[in-house]
Amino acid sequence: MLTVIGEGLVDVVQRSSGVQAHVGGSPLNVAVGLARLDHPVQFLGRYGRDAYGEALAAHLKSSSVLLPLAPDDLPTSVATALVDDAGAATYTFDLAWQLPGVGARLPFLLQGTTLLHTGSIATMLAPGAAEVLAAVERAHPSATISFDPNCRPSIIPDVDYARGQAEKFVALADVVKASDEDLEWLYPGADPLDSARRWLALGGSEGPAMVVVTRGGEGPWGINAAGVAQFAAPRVLVADTVGAGDSFMAALLSAVVDLGLDGAQNRQALRELPADSLRDLLAHASRAAAVTVSRAGANPPTRAELAQMELGEAAPATTEGQP
């Protein structure tokens, strides 16, 4: 069983032409992405007893994501975008992030979990962030841990606090993914790739096995003990980029699981992954993101769709020397 813990929310887009609502949230999108790639996955996140909460639960269940937590009495979290006629958007957030009563149930909820993923608002926003860290610490002795900061400066504007929170999770994680924009915000003035190199060293021998940086159209770059690797982003007609990073994350983790490298017992083998294999992971994840950007919304591919993309895509890839 794979476990994703984090926020789910509803994105409400208000235009002069009308209002549209879509289920979202970075961890939730990753859970859906993993399920569509045929992995058994459960989502641990809160939602309310309201219409938005019902939509969130239905969205997860439609992709066969298990939802072991019942709704609570707080409203479902909402991100509202007000878009003017020129296309400019202003955002407001109504977020509640906590997991009441989950702490005592963690041993049961995490039983059999071989990989736990978290990130974004869930790892930054109190009081739930402390509960997420406790879940990661509990899962670490038996499960692969993955983390994506997916920074939201409009919600967590204190960069020093955000940096400290991110580094706590990086030090416990085996697989870390961040965008170049995340790293530029967390470490102003530093080259994002240098920041990724520093993250690889966090936690010492118990720190990350790999750190991957997504760079939009430039394609991803990754580093591990064997060296660095990169992959040229597949060229597709872009509908929008919503959910692309989450699809990338899900496919990256899917590839790790497909290699049989999930679970703490495989931690050393994951650390010893050759740079060529890291490149292959980047390629697989890039193609998943390419499928997502080719269609509207956070709509990650199924395994069959990704296989079709891989058959038709032959983008060049390169590996470089030691870090």
Describe this structure in words.
- This protein has a 9-stranded mixed sheet with strand order 4-1-7-8-9-10-11-12-13, with helices on both faces.
- It has helices at 26-36, 51-62, 102-109, 128-139, 159-172, 180-186, 192-201, 244-258, 267-271, 275-293, 303-312; strands at 2-5, 9-15, 18-24, 41-44, 78-83, 89-94, 115-119, 144-148, 175-179, 210-214, 221-224, 227-231, 317-319.
- The protein contains 11 helices and 13 strands.
- The chain is globular.
- The longest helix has 19 residues, at 275-293.
- The protein has one domain (2-98, 112-318): UDP-N-acetylmuramoyl-L-alanine:D-glutamate ligase, CATH 3.40.1190.
- Mean pLDDT is 91; it is low at 314-323.
- Helix 3 (102-109) runs parallel beside helix 4 (128-139).
- By secondary structure, it is α/β, with parallel strands linked by helices.
Chain-wise SSE layout:
Blueprint: E1 2-5, E2 9-15, E3 18-24, H1 26-36, E4 41-44, H2 51-62, E5 78-83, E6 89-94, H3 102-109, E7 115-119, H4 128-139, E8 144-148, H5 159-172, E9 175-179, H6 180-186, H7 192-201, E10 210-214, E11 221-224, E12 227-231, H8 244-258, H9 267-271, H10 275-293, H11 303-312, E13 317-319
Parallel strand pairs: 1-4, 1-7, 2-5, 7-8, 8-9, 9-10
Antiparallel strand pairs: 2-3, 5-6, 10-11, 11-12, 12-13
